[in-house]
Amino acid sequence: LPGIDIARSRGARYRLGPELEICGYGCSDHYYESDTILHSFQVLAKLLESPVTQDIICDVGMPVLHRNVRYNCRVIFLNKKILLIRPKISLANAGNYRELRWFTPWNKPRHVEEYFLPRIIQEVTGQETVPFGDAVLATKDTCLGAEICEELWAPNSPHIEMGLDGVEIFTNSSGSHHVLRKAHTRVDLVNSATAKNGGIYILANQKGCDGDRLYYDGCAMISMNGETVAQGSQFSLDDVEVLVATLDLEDVRSYRAEISSRNLAASKVNPYPRVKVNFALSCSDDVAVPTCMPIQWRHHSPEEEISLGPACWLWDYLRRSKQAGFLLPLSGGIDSSATACIVYSMCHQVCLAVKNGNADVLADVRRIVNDETYVPEDPREFCKRVFTTCYMASENSSQDTCNRAKLLAEQIGSYHINLNIDAAVKAIVGIFSMVTGRTPCFSVYGGSNRENLALQNVQARIRMVVAYLFAQLTLWTRGMPGGLLVLGSANVDESLRGYLTKYDCSSADINPIGGISKADLKSFIQYCIENFQLTALRSIMSAPPTAELEPLVDGQVAQIDEADMGMTYAELSIYGKLRKIAKAGPYSMFCKLLNMWKEICTPREVASKVKHFFRMYSVNRHKMTTLTPSYHAENYSPDDNRFDLRPFLYNTTWSWQFRCIDEQVNAL
Questions:
Q1: What is the structure's pLDDT at 555?
Q2: In the predicted model, is pLDDT for residue 129 greater than 70?
Q3: 177, 323, 491, 506: which has the highest count of C-beta atoms within 10 A?
Q4: What EC number is given for this enzyme (predicted)?
């Protein structure tokens, strides 16, 4: 209702909201429950009754059961009367989307049926049945047609035929999530739709965390004849954002009039059923009303996207989980430092929102910090209240990483804890020695690879146990209520390679960087040095990535991540994109890399690298089944929950595939 009220107060005559907005897009298997549809109709009844929805066409999204089949629908109404229920035609069913699991597409083009309204709606509207199907609205002055999210991305988008049939305004209610470097694709598709066919296109998208790994990134927009005339924000803490534009329909008509190929196609188009609406979007005396002019779309850089998207997602998660803040094991390396910077960015966004008068954010802040008079003004001061960092040293930790973590904590303002886990490690290993009579050694002291790995894993897993203990009780020791959410900081490349201990500090409540590559995190760190003046990050950037789980040599780190992994982070990123985005198995990846790396590798070296990657990937794939829920930001994410569905028990010899590679190497 607040969005409709704002739209009306700004003179709008048609209001469009995002996909499935009444119940929320992320209901998942709750769509199977009749309660979800019942409660959606109850909300619809409240909207229909409200004086706020009078004299404005309202277009809302909800699931509807028609003849015992569930559809993803737009319900369009005006002055307590439902004009049309328009079911989705093309369902999103790739990547993170599973709409075919819950909904059926409307497979009857240009066909309308009678929908029998439930009694709670009949009592408000006085209607027994309303049109249900693929139709358009004909008002007194124009014609409007609806698309729903995926339909814009489909090769045979409805706006093509609708535009040829005289529809002048296209609407798109979207549930589109953030992926780094993706925003321009949506903008290009919308502008392209109206450039070829003429017309006005308005797109509304969800914004925020809807209860899972995705962040819906807004970018509401209005376009006319191939040019953007209004742009909404991609990231913000505002629950409601309204975009309004005044445009001249005659500009659409004159634009279309000179496109002869369009007009020839329009003369033989199969017409859409039209629902007549006794209402006009324009006024008879609007000659002097100024119209909106085209604008240049401003895109965020990838570094800005990392700074803003995960920060907004963290804020939504924090306020909705009703916890008192975050705890992060801060190692002094790039990944945990980048996570700390995202929390610091969140504190910036919160202070900015409060400064700009966002009462909802202020109320959430006061509840989180348990102070009804508190006003967050300084991000560092707010950070100290909601963010605890913890450096967990062992005998294998260097003084350098300890100093880096401490200095970064000082600069962002977090409440910082230094502790040592050696006593716990010795106690655990002591139990093993007492039971078995054997004491494992690191390889530098003559131990086997098995002993070396087990001793590293004990340290890593103890850190997880300590992190959760401090998350639950740190505020108790400070005389403050509540507990903290534990943040993880394994990047997307490490997850893909499996370069992490199962149930170590990568196991947390949530992970804001789990979908971001090492290369992008480095760029983000550089951005934070410049944008937030965090000089502590300079030494973190220049230090080689290390797990610091093996003994130091002369006080210096001897263990380096890339040497341990047998591949560089840059190579990992390439493997990840080829495996997931290019859908390459071992043989196809080898063939593609032969070309890509022909200047730097022999065919035999390429084969060796590809085999090593797939061997390590398959050996460690089981770790993805317990991966901490991570912000989805990359299309090569190995997230096992929904996005990247694979077996986790592999034949790790890949005998047939590797034999094909070997034959090709020998032939070359």
A1: 66
A2: yes
A3: 491
A4: 6.3.5.1
Q: Dump pLDDT digits (tens) for 303-356.
A: 999 999 999 999 999 999 999 999 999 999 999 999 999 999 999 999 999 999
Residue of 349, 355, 352, 330 lying closest to 340 (CA atoms)? 330
Give all strands (DSSP E) within 408-532, no chain letters: 415-420, 485-486
> What percentage of the chain carries pLDDT values higher than 70?
99
Q: Does residue 106 contact residue 100 with C-beta atoms inside 8 Å? A: no
CATH class of 302-422+463-559: alpha beta
Q: Are residues 420 and 394 in contact, defined by beta-carbon separation less than 8 angstroms? A: yes
Distances 444 to 432, 452, 454, 564 between C-alpha atoms, Å: 20, 9, 14, 14
CA–CA separation, 193 and 190 (whole Å): 5
**132 CB-contact burial (10 Å; exposed 0-12 / middle 13-18 / buried 19+):** buried
Identify which of 619, 615, 516 has the alpha carbon closest to the alpha carbon of residue 567.
Answer: 615
Q: Which of 153, 242, 163 lies closest to 200 in space, CA to CA?
A: 163
Contact 256, 263 (CB under 8 A): yes
Which has the closest alpha carbon to 628: 522, 539, 484, 513? 513
Catalytic site positions: 19, 88, 149, 331
* The pLDDT of residue 551: 81
Tokens of 222: 């209005």
CA atoms of 493 and 514, how far apart (whole Å): 9
Confidence at 566, pLDDT banded by 50, 70, 90? confident
pLDDT over threshold 70, residue 642: yes
CATH architecture of 10-276: 4-Layer Sandwich (3.60)
